[in-house]
Each structure stands twice: as C-alpha cells, then as structure tokens.
Amino acid sequence: MTKPETDRRFANTLARGLSLLRAFRASDDGLTHSELAERTGLPNSTVSRLTFTLSELGFLSHAGRMNRYRLGPAALALGNVAAASVSFVEVGHQILQDLADQTGTLVSLAVRDGEKVMLAKTWRPVGAASIWLEPGHRIPVFGSSSGRAIVAALDDTRFQAMNPSDALCNFRSHGYDQLIAQGFTIAPPETRYSTTVNAVAVPFHAQEFGEPVAFSCGALPEALTDDRMCNDVGPALRDSVRELERITGRSPALVRRG
Questions:
Q1: Is Transport among the key words of this record (predicted)?
Q2: Where are the domains of the chain?
Q3: Where are the beta strands (DSSP E) in 116-246?
Q4: If both were cysteines, with which of 22, 26, 150, 178 could 134 make a disulfide (CB 3.0 to 4.6 Å apart)?
Q5: Same topology for domains 12-79 and 86-248, yes or no?
C-alpha cells in the first residue's frame, strides 16, 4: 500500500527518487528526462534534480548519448543482492522453465506493488520469437489472474489496508473459491484488464516479503483458451508450484477462512 503524502513519516523526496528507478523496464535503451517525467508523473524540474542526485550516487548512469539515463552500477549491485536473498526464485528456475516449455506460455512471478502487481521475473519458452511482457511491467490487481491469486491469499489485515472497493472484495472472494476448488485462479472475462492476454495464476508464500506472490502462465487468447487454462495449463501450473513448495519447505500460501 502506498503511504499517503500527509503521513509525517513518509519521505516524499525518497519516494520520488525511487519512482524514477522503478520507471525503467528491461527493454528500455535508456530514458530521457521527458520519458521519465511521463512515466512517473513528476515535473521535469523535479526529474532533473533527482536524476542528478541518483547519478552522483551511482544509481543512474548518463553516457551523454542522446541524453538518455540508464540504471547504474549501484542499482545493479542492489538488484543482485535482492535477487540472491530471494532463494525460491533460483531454486525454482528449472521447474518454471520446464513449465514454460511444456505449456508454450510465458511464466511470470508477480509481486504486489501498491494498487498494481509487478512482474519481477519471467521464463519464456525456448525458441519463442515474439515480444512478451517483461520484468518491471505492471498490471492491475483488479482484472488480472495474478492480482486475484495474490489478494485471495492475502490476510484480511493487509487486504483491508488496500481500502478495497466492493468490486475488489467480490473479485477476491471468488478467487478464494477458485483456489479452494481447483488450486488456481482465472480472472473472469468481463473483468480482464486486457483482451490480448489470457492468464492463469497460483499464489506462493514468499516469507521474504511477508505476503504471497503469484506465479502465472500467460499467452495470447487464441493460444491459451479458457478451456486450456482450466484443463491443461492451470493444473500444470498448480502442480509446479506445489513441487516448488515441497522442495523449499514452504507452507501453502492459501489460509482457509472460517
């Protein structure tokens, strides 16, 4: 949940600086001031001050080519430290790559990021030539299978801290029922945030984050039909996550409610 700017404990300048770092995506060939301002919603003058500071600290680099900024060595080091501390990602790499190859889908790890979920890691089928969603891409909680899996497994206190609408409460409740009945979630067609991607998701208890994350399988609707999600890909994803839970000694993410 994003802290309100009126909270005296909330450091607005730090939040704005971090929003610049979060604006970068894996496919970017650097970003200009204008592009950073567009992605973050910050004024150009603020972006200019923040990029100078972050460059001085090594979190951004600026080689002068076309006035584009890139993530710098300090950001790379921090990312490597973060990745190394999340052990289940490395342990599960082969399981998830095999799942991507077996199903012909993009397998993703999604984490909650305020009112959205962010793809933190992806596994592509070997030989896939098309451009797929990439790490750093953010999708809505409401209307995505990953978002549904996360909020369905999220404890009540954390969920209520999101100030959920009635629609999100219903979205979560039906996702919980899906997890109990079949072990995976699918966003209903009428709420799907995109008409170009279908996906099925399963929550996973990430003790490193203190809350569930979601693994998902996604593809174009013509390749990943609702029938295939329910009868083929969904069960395969569920079984892969169960295997990852087994070898990492993690408890299931879903806690049954009374």
A1: no
A2: 12-79, 86-248
A3: 116-123, 138-140, 198-206, 211-219
A4: 26
A5: no
C-alpha distance from residue 211 to each of 24, 124, 157, 206 (Å): 25, 25, 11, 6
Residues 6+ apart with CB under 8 A from 136: 22, 24, 25, 26, 118, 119
Across the chain, which distance is largest between two alpha carbons, in Å?
60
CATH class label, 12-79? mainly alpha
Per-residue pLDDT of the chain (258 residues; tens, 9 = 90+): 445 556 788 888 998 988 888 888 877 888 898 999 998 999 999 999 999 999 998 889 887 656 789 888 888 777 777 766 677 888 999 999 999 999 999 999 999 987 889 898 899 998 876 657 788 888 999 999 999 999 999 999 999 999 999 999 999 999 999 999 999 999 999 999 988 999 999 999 988 888 899 999 999 999 999 999 999 999 999 999 999 999 999 888 876 665
Contact in structure between 139 and 191 (CB atoms under 8 Å): no
CA distances (Å), 80 to each of 28, 75, 107, 175, 187, in order?
19, 9, 21, 33, 33
Sign of CA dihedral 33, 35, 36, 42: positive
Q: Which two tokens mark 137?
A: 């891409």
